[in-house]
Amino acid sequence: MRGEWRRFPVFVLVTSAVVMTVVLLAQYWGGLAPCELCLTERWPWDAAIVVAFVAAMVGSRAAQPWVALVLALVFAVGAALAFYHVGVERHWFAGPSACTAGPTPTTLEGLKAQLMHQQPVRCDEPSWTLFGISLAGWNLLGSVVMAAICTVVFVRTRRRAAR
Which of 46, 44, 41, 48 is nearest to 10 (CA)? Predict the structure, then answer.
């Protein structure tokens, strides 16, 4: 079937666009302000949208394995960022000093300095959960699933090309 290879980049494009739409709706319509790490976790989804769009518009069957590999790497980076954020939320790792709880200041000047350099949303306190899983946890799950799908597509298309 002609153009069948376009299904994969279109799937990634639509999935990534839905994820970003939900996140932006939660932010602007739902009132969930993102922390510094949340904003960073959006980058891989944005990159996936760009790569998948270009692949769907100008890609070819021969390029599909490499597009799948690039997307698998993008989602692996997304999974690593989400894992780090989950670790910060669970206090496994120290988070960025600008958005996590630091030592309590002992002077008025110390308190003023801490307030002036602190982000309005804390990275180590989830602002929303579903079934006990924060948005960072859901992002981790979604990124791992997408990385696995992209890896499977890469392996299958490489095997098909080798035949």
Answer: 48
As a whole number of angstroms, the distance between CA 71 and CA 64 comes to 10
Q: pLDDT tens digit string along 125-146?
A: 778 778 988 888 999 999 999 9
- CA–centroid distance for 42 within its chain: 5
Report strand pairing: 133-134 vs 129-130.
Answer: antiparallel
Residue 29 tokens, joined = 């319509």
Comparing C-alpha atoms, which of 59, 88, 83, 84 is closest to residue 71?
59
For the chain, what's the residue count?
Answer: 163
CB atoms under 10 Å from CB of 28, counted, come to 10
pTM of the shown model = 0.80
Task: Specify the fold of 4-162.
Answer: Bromodomain-like (1.20.1550)
DSSP string over 93-142: S---TTTS--PPPSSHHHHHHHHHTS-SS-TTS-S-EETTEEHHHHHHHH
Tens-digit pLDDT profile for residues 82-141: 999 999 888 888 777 766 655 566 677 766 666 666 556 777 777 877 898 888 899 999
